[in-house]
Amino acid sequence: xxxxxxxxxxxxxxxxxxxxxxxxxxxVCIVPRHxxxxxxxxxxxxxxxxxxxxxxSSLAVRYPGxxxxxxxxxxxxxxxRRVMPDSHEGSIxxxxxxxxxxxxxxxxxxxxxxxxxxxTVRDNFIEIDGTNPDNESAHEELSxxxxxxxxxxxxxxxxxLIDALSVIDxxxxxxxxxxxxxIVSDPCTTNYRSVVMPMRL
Length: 201
Prior knowledge:
Radius of gyration: 19 Å
Distance between the termini: 28 Å
Number of strands: 14
Largest sheet: 7 strands, antiparallel
Helix content: 10-25%
Number of domains: 2
């Protein structure tokens, strides 16, 4: 899981050798952001096994030919379950690529600093609007593959929504919307969830 205060992402994966950890108490580790980004650049894009070891205040990641280690951050990680909205106004299924393209087009004419866009769901359509201080505006409208028949209008940072949708591998994405934000997930798996907080426009 990771969070920057405006968004949070949770991803779960199975361990190949769970029996090796049967007698090991669970441990929550806080890993600095910079080593994680460096690790992502170096990890092979294949099924090569990766070994993760936690010893004291250090974490080491090993795979053939490479070993990366980092100091852990001391402290207690916030309970992410309290951040995830436990109820929503309704959920929609969107075409991921079409939604990403529309968000990127609208983001071009949104505020350069905050990237704020207005997201409106009504009548099985999404309307995405963006404006900037120069009074330039952009408007996109997308039909929905599925909607619960509700109406909601929220403001979001376009970049945060783009990031959340970009890591989903399948054609569609599910968005559960409420005044507390949007939960972005892959309808084909329960392994990934991301919540993006709304912003005032």
